[in-house]
Amino acid sequence: MDLKLAHSNKDGIEIVDVEGEIDVYTAPRLRELLIELVNKKNYQLVVNMEKVEFLDSTGLGVLVGGLKRVRAHDGSLDLVCTQERILKIFRITGLTKVFGIHESVDQAIAARKAEK
Amino acid sequence: MRKGDPGTERIPVEWVLMKADTEQIRILLVEDDDGDAFLIEELLREARAGITVRRARLLAEAGKLIDEATCVLLDLDLPDSRGLHGLRRLLLQEPDTAIVVLTGLADEHLGEEAVRAGAQDYLIKGDVTGKLLHRVIRYAVERRRWHEAQRQLHVARVSARENARLERGLLPSAVLDDPRLSVAARYRAGGKQRLLGGDFYDVVQTPDGWVHALIGDVCGHGPSEAALGVCLRVAWRALVLAGERPADVLSAVQLVLRHEQQEEAMFATVCMMSVAPGRRTATLRLAGHPAPLLVTPHGIGELAAPPCPPPGLNDAGNWPALDVKLGDRWSLLLYTDGLVEGRISGSPYRLGSEGLMGLMRDALGTAPFDPGRVGDEALLNGLIDQVRHLNGGDLNDDVALLVLGCS
User: Fold this and answer.
1) Which residues cross the membrane (chain A) (predicted)?
2) ipTM for the complex?
3) Is B296 contained in some domain?
4) If you measure CA to CA, which chain A residue comes closest to B220?
């Protein structure tokens, strides 16, 4: 299964749209994109996971890696996810306490703006 | 070959498919001279070999086509390459492809030099028959295959030695002194390379009679993750033996991880089960890890403790526990996520803990279950084989299983 990645800027926040399966084979591409965005000084990231079909521990590691990178610049990495089977992975791994998880991109952006 | 029609030869490459009476050999002929190329192709046809020929006129073209070839016939005198330069370039790019060089009568010595530099053989133009050409190509391909097989064997041996060394660190023997308890474990390295990842487990009984079981998984897959796994397991064992309370053990394991980690994103999920001296109750802590299964005569269930972030990400340092009633006879199956992340018969869905419980139920038959059977070697192997079978082949991730049973 393939992984599709796209990103766009909205209100100064970089939105990363992820589609497909994030696993041991595809996760490196997401890692590269997140590193590239941080290197280009995008420290406010929202990863939209609404079209993600599967996420394994390597994928979680990549998201955590991204979070640590932006936090080093006082930035943020929020997630958009309403799919139960993906949310379950975050619950089991206790990462709901680590990431801000939102129901829509707009909500994630609003939450980020409110915190500023 | 459209010899004598240079005007239409803008397309530098053509496919010539010859009658295949044996296994297909894909030849890349690198020859700028149309006359010589025509001759070689005629000879190949004469030899009735099952051979596909693709032609390049320049070394630069050859570089783009070589990855599809099983054997390269390389002229040593090309417009963009003279002598052994072209041979070295192509070998560097595709070390596993057999290369036979073509030389003129005047520079036969170059052929010998080419063989020393890594060519499989050489042919002198004008001195080649169809049979000779065919034989040289076949031998060249066979020799190359043999070398490749040898190389793979060597790699497999090295990785087996490496795995054995790490395995001793990641997967120790239990420290247990209770005839009622038994421990069984299984480990299967995932991925195509079959290299050990960072799954680890341990079982330790302390002087006060408590038995602590651990299973963990360092995020990621590779030697540095495996090395960190060894570190964490040994740290865990030392802390447990030193009599630290479980929550303090996990806090200290988190500190060790932060000190020892080489990549910033690393974290390790762990499941820690502490069985009280009476063997009828236990406490469970899940830090980012899948919940273990409890099998009793009455049923098979998942022990869902309140989840907390794994060591490495648990800034609050809270490690909430679930008190578990085990009963008289029971088995606990602790596992890493590789076991439940496999596909189900080609569908996008994954096995999950529900699927795993279903397989366990199938394996144990109808209630009342015999919890003692969960640790059976055949049952555990069968379980992993079934998960692999459902996945349609090898699993991506490592799988570790630890069964602690009481009879």
Assistant:
1) none
2) 0.88
3) yes
4) A58
